[in-house]
Design goal:
The complex is a heterodimer of chains A (311) and B (173). Helix content of chain A is 31%, strand content 24%. Chain A contains four helices and twelve strands, in the order ααααββββββββββββ. Chain A has a six-stranded antiparallel beta barrel. A six-stranded antiparallel barrel of chain A has the order 6-7-8-11-10-9. Chain B is built from seven helices and no strands. Chain B is globular, with a radius of gyration of 15 Å. Classes of the chains: A alpha+beta (311), B mainly alpha (173).
Chain lengths: 311, 173
């Protein structure tokens, strides 16, 4: 027998729907109780997330490795040889050393740019179920982290602190569809707006249609007032393709972020604006092709040699 | 009586929510991964009456909204899951051919989850949220369907057993 419903059931559904609409209205009006609830939940969950991070560390990158199986043969060969080297060197304390490496590169970047940073470990990655790209880090307001601070990794921009809790913080990744940042092209200083697309590639819209952008151009953060949400000079990514449609109102380009968001382990939050804009000093150096050694052999007949016949 | 039994399910959902936030979220699975809370909720609702399905959706929606990674306002997931919980329960209610057949439950759960995410996106659009490229959204929806179809059969027996114990009925699966 199919369900026909009764008045009590219908009343319940109506009450539940009205309650949810009431909650949406309260939240959109900025009622602090709702924020308090979320903060409380996050504070309660942080120890569990830390425990989960510790327990899942050995398995965490397995799925990420599986997704990269479709690379070209050369890349796979290169990775295999690198992997072999890493396996030998990182046999013991693999995770700790990897995090140390990330920490070192992020400190190098922060030191070069004159940023004062607070380092943090990534303890959770937000689910994609809600179509957002976020991570949770294990440092919060007690470490000096506030909302709208720039988050970097050793390669460049990671995102921005969306919500800072007491001992953790939610970071909106640069790949999040809602993410926007003012960017400038290194050297040419052309400016534009870069937006996340949900993947490792973003879209740059140049503000001036008469300027030109080339594949391989490096992008840097323009910076905001008082360095929040973005400090100036942080490397963002590299232009991989340019859309030069003749009828387009603005010129657009596809950008590949320097940071790999799926393998983030250690990040740094920039807590103080640098005294001077680092300008283009943080643009990563392009890899130089190693010249192959050429060996030339000259062969000349020996003067004493003479044809011999075997007896 | 039903409400009292419904209250018994709250700690179960809290455990599932903690499991999702502390462990599943950190697995970094390909295709966007899955939400065990959503899967658990929809299977639970499929096995329940429409009223309990809606109530289950309400409770799970509140938990989803409390998640720090939830982009929308509080009540966004709640509204979606009330409708989804009621919908999937309504589909299966009174028809033992559906509720006793694991394949049907997996199909309803998978379709319900994808539909929930679509409704979530539509309401998000109405509320002015950015969604990203269409291809990315389609990719995530396909990923959700894939993972739900994989995970739901694995947890179906556990959910059915727990549901039967909470509501004092006999597990039909």
């Amino acid at each position: 027998m199919r369900y026909g419903g009764d008045n009590r059931g219908r009343l319940l559904i109506i009450v539940l729907i009205v309650t949810s609409l009431f909650l949406i209205t309260l939240d959109l009006r900025g009622v602090s109780v709702i924020d308090g609830l979320r903060n409380g939940t996050q504070t309660a969950l942080t120890p569990f997330q830390k425990a989960g991070s510790w327990a899942l560390t050995p398995f965490r990158n397995f799925a990420s490795d599986v997704t990269h199986l479709g690379r070209t043969r050369n890349q796979i060969e290169k990775l295999k040889s690198e992997n072999e080297k890493l396996r030998n060197t990182l046999q013991s304390r693999k995770t700790a050393d990897a995090q140390l490496k990330q920490l070192k590169s992020v400190l190098n970047l922060a030191g070069s740019g004159g940023y004062k940073v607070v380092n943090a470990k990534v303890i959770s990655q937000g689910p994609n179920t809600s179509f957002t790209q976020t991570i949770t880090i294990d440092a919060g307001t007690t470490s000096g982290i506030r909302n709208n601070m720039t988050v970097i990794s050793g390669y460049g921009l990671v995102g921005v602190v969306k919500v800072a809790y007491s001992t953790s913080a939610l970071v909106q990744l640069a790949s999040d569809p809602a993410f926007r940042i003012g960017a400038r092209i290194a050297k040419s200083q052309q400016i534009g707006i870069l937006s996340g697309q949900g993947s490792r590639r973003g879209v740059l819209e140049l503000l001036d249609n008469t300027t030109t952008v080339k594949v391989g151009d490096a992008l840097l953060a323009r910076g905001s007032d008082n360095g929040r949400p973005f400090v100036p000079g942080v490397p963002i990514g590299e232009v991989t393709s340019v859309d030069n449609s003749p009828g387009a109102v603005t010129q657009t380009a596809e950008v590949k972020f320097y940071a790999n968001f799926s393998t983030l382990g250690v990040v740094a939050v920039v807590v103080t604006n640098p005294e001077a804009d680092p300008r283009d000093s943080l643009v990563p150096a392009k890899p130089r092709p190693t010249p192959l050694p050429t060996v030339t052999i000259y062969a000349s007949p020996s003067p004493s040699s003479s044809p011999t016949t075997e007896p | 009586m039903t409400i009292r039994r419904y209250l018994f399910s709250i700690p179960i959902f809290l455990v599932i929510y903690t499991l999702q936030e502390a462990f599943i979220s950190q697995l970094r699975l390909p295709l966007g991964g899955f939400s065990i809370l959503l899967i658990f909720t929809l299977i639970w609702a499929t096995l329940s009456t429409p009223e309990v399905g809606a109530l289950t959706g309400f409770g799970a929606g509140i938990l989803m909204d409390l998640s720090q990674s939830s982009p929308g306002p509080m009540g966004h997931w709640t509204l979606v899951l009330i409708l989804a919980g009621y919908g999937v329960a309504f589909l299966g209610y009174g028809d033992d051919n559906i509720r006793t057949n694991p394949i049907n439950i997996v199909l309803i759960t998978t379709a319900g989850l994808v539909a929930s995410q679509l409704v979530f996106l539509l309401i998000g659009l109405l509320l002015g949220q950015a969604l990203g490229s269409i291809s990315h959204v389609l990719f995530l929806l396909a990923g959700s369907a894939f993972w739900t179809a994989i995970v739901s059969p694995l947890v179906l027996k556990i959910v059915s057993f727990t549901h039967a114990n909470v509501f004092g009925t006999r597990s039909l699966i």
